[in-house]
Each structure stands twice: as structure tokens, then as C-alpha cells.
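Need residues for this backbone.
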């Protein structure tokens, strides 16, 4: 009674699958072990065993009652319990597992040998072998046992085929993989044949199975189908495509979400469809989030069945702008061989424009190859090409803060090119350097809008109350809307009466709708307005 109570408590506290396995194990043990004393010693193993057959090995060295239970277990619905019973019986008789399996097959009456044959097929497939190879070491009866199994191939196929459509999802994938191994065919081929022979109602089950196969093989379902499908499979492929199209339709709106994490999840999910989601993945290459862009780049490479490096090189060479090259460079920055790949682009061998060269330098901070990042970046910081210098400074933002990086960013504030100065401001803001607040405030008067906007952004992190006045002036008088937007956002963070007054005037009078919106939102955040 105490053991039964312990099992009930365990199932109440366990995740559903663990609880189900323990319950199945308990039921299996009680079904075959009828002796009360033996049951009390054996069945509680299910509480911690973690497998449906956990109780069986304990009977291997038992007496007559244990042998009766093992004989009964050979008829269990679970092949794992049957195989465990064979193995436990083999140990008690001093035989190898496979020899005992061959004896069981050959000694079974022909009308009752499907269970032994199916057990042999599944045990062999679980070991990654054909039944003939698995029974090769079974002694003199091995070849005859393998031949008898093959004679029952249609019954075995039907049994595994039905399990592929079982209500319990955990049963389906082992059945598919075991049937594929037994037949010497790919899992994709088994799925296609199953779709062709069954009503449309089962298509979602088969589509989900193929998705798991693709995930295990690290390819997309679209790629699997392209590699396996033949002209006669057109109808089955179209039925699977219909299922995947519905799933892609459900993910598509997530790519437009304002939440970057939701877009990342959607882009990662689209990768499993490969060429079926090419249009969506190509669109995600232009996303504002680097992780989304990387998922899209990797998904497109997988869709083509090519190494990421080859596809990225093609993408960079074809790119006419830094924005077009960026996803491929970002993806390669986390790939083996990133140092050599990025260096070749940075030096202009595979880049059409200086801006693309600079983009390659900018992502070098994410590449862990090639020694010290600072040692790799320093030569580019003194390049004669302004976008390359800017890229070297931008790369500092991905590195841990250190004196050498701070010095390089501070020096870049004196550069004559606005893109380099803007990059330096962004890095100093990332490093949260309040000592650079006055420098950033001074650059609000730059002739270059890019620098003024970067200075306004930086003051959000390095600014102080005295800087509110110049920010308010930028918000109310700067001719460039991007600068005014940046000033409004920073004033919202710094706050104070002067910030509220400037935001109120901009919200009421600015000619740009975006500036108005940001100013109104800033007022709400500061507790004014609705």
C-alpha cells in the first residue's frame, strides 16, 4: 500500500510524460508479476526507473515466480518490455541477448511469431542495424531467425505503420524510424508513402513527423522533400506543402511584430521549412534586429543545401550596399573561419564598396578567431578609408570595456569624417562614459546631422542635467527630423522642467509627425498628458 501511495504522489508531482511512463511501467509490472512478495520488491522500481521496462531486469536472477513473470512479459504490448524480458531471460540462462532472441523467434508457433519478429525488428533498428545484421551474432539459429522475420515483413510493416498514427505522439517517431531502418529506406520516403496511402486527415501527423526528422538531420523539411521526392510523389508532396503553408501563414504576421523576440522566434521557426519559406526569409534579411537577420541568412543557406560560407560569399559579392551585405557578414561572424572571411571583405577583395568593407570590420568584434580583437581592429582604425575606420570603431561596441578600446573611441571623436565621429559617440554611450557628456553636448553643434543625432543619442547614457538646455534647443530648432527625434528621446530620459517644456512645444508645433509622436510619448512617460 505504501508503494502505491508513493507512486501516486510521484505522478502528481511529475511532468506529464514522466508520470505517464511511470504509470505504464507500474501497470506493466503488476500485469505480469502476480506473486505479492515479488511484486512488492519489483514494481516500486518504476518510481525512479524512468522507463516502461525498468522493472524487468530485477527478475533476471529470480526463482520460479520470476521466470513465470518473464515468460508473461514476452507477451506485453510494449516491445521494450518484451525485449527486456528476452535479455533478462538470457542472463538467467547464460546466453547472449541475440541468441535468446533467435531462440524465441524460432520456438514460437507460426501463428504467434509476430510479437517475437516485431521485437527483433525494433531492437535491431534501435541499434541502427538491419535485422539480418543484428541476428548475425545469434549463433546457428541466427540466419533462420532473420529469414523468419523477413517472411513476416508485411505484418511488421502494418504494425509499425499504425503506430506512426498513434494518438500518443511519443510513439510515432520511434515507429517511423524503426520502419525506415527495417525497410532500408529513408524516413522521408516512408512518410511520402504513408501520405499517399492514407486520407488527408492524417497529413498533419505525417508533416509533424517529417519536421522532427528534418530537425534531427539539421536540414529543412523543404530540403528533405526536394532530395527525396520523385514525379509520382507530386500529390503527396502537395498535401504536405499545404500543411506547411498553413504553418508559415501563422508565423508570417509575427515577422511584423514590434517585439524583437517574437520576430526572432518566427524567423527561427521559418528555418525548418527551407525553400518553402524563402520569400519570408528573404524579407527578414532587412529586419532591424541582428538575430532575426542571422536566422534569415542561415535559413536561406540551409534552404539551398549549401554551406553558409558559400552562400554568404555570394551574398556579399552581389551586395551593392552595406545593408544588403550586413546579414551575411553578421552570420559569418559566428561561423568557423570568420576571421579569414571578414578580413578578405575588409581588405576589399570581395566587397563592391568601401561601406561594405567597413561593415565587415564592424562585425569583427563578434568573431572569436584570430587572437586579440583589439590587435585585429587597430590597423583598420588608422585606415585611409573612412567607412573602414568607422567600422573599426563600431566593432568596439561588441567588446568588453577596456582602456585600449576607450582610448581608441576617444581618439575617433577628433576624426574629420562624420561617420567615424558618430560611431565613436555610439561606442562611448555603450560604455556609459559620463566623463564624455560634455564632449557629446559640444558635438550637438556639429555641421553634420549624423554627428548631431549620434550626440543626442549618446547623451541619453552620458548626459546630465546641465545638458538639457542644449538638447532642448536641438529639439526646437534643428532642421533635421532625425536629430529632433533623438533629442526628444534623450530629454524624456533626463527629464526636468526644461525638458517637459521643450517636449510640450514640439508635441504641439513640430511639422514632423514622428517628432510629434516621440515628444507626446515622452510627455506621457514623464507623467504629463494621456
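Answer:
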Amino acid at each position: 500500500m505504501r508503494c502505491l501511495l508513493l507512486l501516486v504522489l510521484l505522478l502528481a508531482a511529475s511532468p506529464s510524460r514522466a508520470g505517464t511512463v511511470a504509470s505504464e511501467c507500474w501497470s506493466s509490472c503488476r500485469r505480469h508479476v502476480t506473486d505479492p512478495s515479488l511484486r512488492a520488491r519489483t514494481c516500486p522500481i518504476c518510481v525512479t526507473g524512468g522507463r516502461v521496462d525498468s522493472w524487468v531486469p530485477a527478475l533476471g536472477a529470480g526463482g520460479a515466480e520470476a521466470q513465470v513473470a518473464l515468460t508473461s512479459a514476452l507477451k506485453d504490448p510494449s516491445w521494450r518490455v518484451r525485449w527486456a524480458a528476452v535479455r533478462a531471460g538470457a542472463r538467467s540462462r547464460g546466453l547472449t541477448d541475440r541468441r535468446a532472441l533467435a531462440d524465441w523467434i524460432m520456438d514460437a508457433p507460426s501463428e504467434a511469431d509476430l510479437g517475437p519478429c516485431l521485437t527483433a525488428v525494433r531492437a535491431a533498428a534501435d541499434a541502427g542495424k538491419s535485422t539480418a545484421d543484428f541476428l548475425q551474432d545469434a549463433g546457428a539459429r541466427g540466419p533462420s531467425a532473420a529469414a523468419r522475420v523477413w517472411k513476416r515483413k508485411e505484418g511488421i510493416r502494418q504494425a509499425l505503420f499504425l503506430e506512426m498514427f498513434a494518438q500518443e505522439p511519443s510513439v510515432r517517431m520511434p515507429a517511423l524510424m524503426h520502419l525506415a531502418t527495417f525497410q532500408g529506406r529513408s524516413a522521408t520516403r516512408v512518410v511520402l508513402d504513408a501520405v499517399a496511402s492514407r486520407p488527408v486527415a492524417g497529413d498533419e501527423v505525417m508533416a509533424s513527423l517529417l519536421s522532427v526528422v528534418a530537425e534531427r538531420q539539421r536540414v529543412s523539411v523543404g530540403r528533405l522533400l526536394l532530395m527525396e521526392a520523385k514525379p509520382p510523389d507530386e500529390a503527396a508532396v502537395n498535401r504536405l506543402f499545404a500543411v506547411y503553408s498553413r504553418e508559415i501563414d501563422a508565423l508570417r504576421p509575427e515577422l511584423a511584430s514590434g517585439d524583437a523576440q517574437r520576430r526572432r522566434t518566427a524567423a527561427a521557426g521559418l528555418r525548418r521549412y527551407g525553400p518553402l519559406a524563402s520569400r519570408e526569409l528573404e524579407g527578414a534579411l532587412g529586419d532591424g534586429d541582428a538575430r532575426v537577420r542571422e536566422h534569415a541568412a542561415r535559413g536561406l543557406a540551409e534552404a539551398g543545401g549549401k554551406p553558409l560560407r558559400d552562400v554568404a560569399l555570394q551574398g556579399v559579392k552581389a551586395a551593392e550596399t552595406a545593408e544588403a551585405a550586413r546579414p551575411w557578414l553578421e552570420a559569418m561572424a559566428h561561423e568557423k573561419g570568420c576571421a579569414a572571411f571578414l578580413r578578405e571583405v575588409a581588405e576589399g577583395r570581395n566587397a563592391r564598396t568601401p561601406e561594405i568593407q567597413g561593415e565587415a570590420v564592424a562585425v569583427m568584434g563578434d568573431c572569436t578567431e584570430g587572437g586579440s580583437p583589439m590587435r585585429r581592429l587597430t590597423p583598420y582604425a588608422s585606415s585611409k578609408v573612412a567607412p573602414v575606420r568607422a567600422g573599426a570603431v563600431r566593432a568596439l561596441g561588441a567588446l568588453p570595456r577596456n582602456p585600449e578600446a576607450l582610448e581608441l573611441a576617444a581618439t575617433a571623436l577628433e576624426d574629420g569624417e562624420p561617420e567615424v565621429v558618430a560611431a565613436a559617440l555610439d561606442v562611448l554611450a555603450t560604455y556609459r562614459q559620463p566623463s564624455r557628456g560634455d564632449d557629446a553636448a559640444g558635438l550637438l553643434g556639429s555641421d553634420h546631422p549624423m554627428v548631431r543625432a549620434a550626440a543626442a543619442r549618446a547623451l541619453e547614457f552620458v548626459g546630465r542635467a546641465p545638458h538639457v538646455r542644449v538638447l532642448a534647443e536641438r529639439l526646437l530648432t534643428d532642421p533635421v527630423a532625425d536629430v529632433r527625434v533623438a533629442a526628444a528621446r534623450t530629454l524624456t530620459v533626463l527629464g526636468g522642467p526644461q525638458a517637459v517644456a521643450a517636449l510640450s512645444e514640439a508635441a504641439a508645433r513640430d511639422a514632423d509627425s514622428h517628432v510629434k509622436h516621440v515628444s507626446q510619448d515622452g510627455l506621457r512617460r514623464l507623467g504629463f498628458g494621456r
